Amino acid sequence: MKYVLDSCVAFKWVVTEPDTDKALRLREAFRNGVHELIAPDIFPIETGHALTRAERQGRITPPDGWAAWLSVMADCPQLVASIPDMPRAYAISSSIRTGIYDCLYVALAEREGCEFVTADDKLIRNLQVHFPFIVPLSSLT
Q: What CATH architecture applies to the domain 2-139?
């Protein structure tokens, strides 16, 4: 199965949080060719942002953060250019009044006709009613 992968799910590959076990199972299935993972080309930047924020919060050390980023990049989903999806992402962001970064993931999943896996509860609450292909990581087995 093909999924758009939210960076917050990949973050759980390297920082233990709720549903880390499900995120790791998804990564293992990806490694074994069971699933295809794609993401907008902002994925590495968003992952880096989340890891440096975890450093500032004292959850990880700077050397651990950089090693974690490299680990995520070793299993990086196929990156897809964001600019072609900007018109749709902008329209979603403007109409639903939510962040454009999240909307790039939604627009990509919509265009690709696949599910978008996220662990972002706020995104799920705000967008899933409009986009039923948004799948909470917690719902994966």
A: 3-Layer(aba) Sandwich (3.40)
